[in-house]
């Protein structure tokens, strides 16, 4: 059975995100530390998107010749964005649930 590079990258990205989430929630953190972790995670996603945009542009200009590398970076960026979007949706859903709770 052959394992593709995309599956390996996806698994590594998921593992990194899960490790960061476990680290953020495992200890009693101050609000500043938690907000810093969230900010760092969002900056990481933005950086991933910037890398994907840059390498795509380099490929279009002929500076980058490895199409696999370009597609992998785009997929990593896409997965990171989708995960961020899903976390946001879950947080909003939880907030709505809390606001609708009887007091």
Distance between the termini: 56 Å
**Class by SSE composition:** mainly alpha
Q: How much helix, percentage-wise, in residues?
A: over 70%
- Major sheet summary line: none
What coarse outline follows from CA principal-axis ratios?
A: elongated
Give the total of domains: 1
- Strand element count: 0
Mean pLDDT: 84
Strand content: under 5%
The H/E string reads HHH
Q: Low-confidence runs (pLDDT<50, min 5 residues)?
A: none
Taking all Cα atoms into account, the compactness measure Rg is 18 Å
Number of helices: 3
**What oligomeric state best describes the polypeptide chains here?**
single chain
Structure in words:
- This protein is mostly helical and 103 residues long.
- It has one domain (5-99).
- Helix content is 83%, strand content 0%.
- The chain has 3 helices and no strands.
- It has helices at 5-26, 31-61, 67-99.
- Helix 1 packs parallel to helix 3.
- The protein is elongated, with a radius of gyration of 18 Å.
- The termini are far apart.
- The model has no long low-confidence stretch (mean pLDDT 84).
């Amino acid at each position: 059975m052959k394992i593709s590079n995309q599956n390996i990258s996806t698994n590594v990205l998921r593992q990194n995100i899960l490790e960061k989430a476990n680290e953020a929630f495992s200890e009693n953190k101050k609000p500043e530390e938690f907000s810093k972790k969230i900010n760092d995670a969002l900056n990481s996603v933005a950086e991933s998107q910037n890398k994907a945009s840059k390498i795509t542009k380099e490929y279009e200009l002929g500076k980058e010749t490895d199409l696999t590398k370009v597609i992998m970076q785009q997929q990593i960026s896409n997965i990171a964005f989708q995960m961020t979007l899903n976390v946001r949706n879950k947080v909003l859903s939880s907030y709505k649930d809390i606001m609708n709770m009887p007091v």
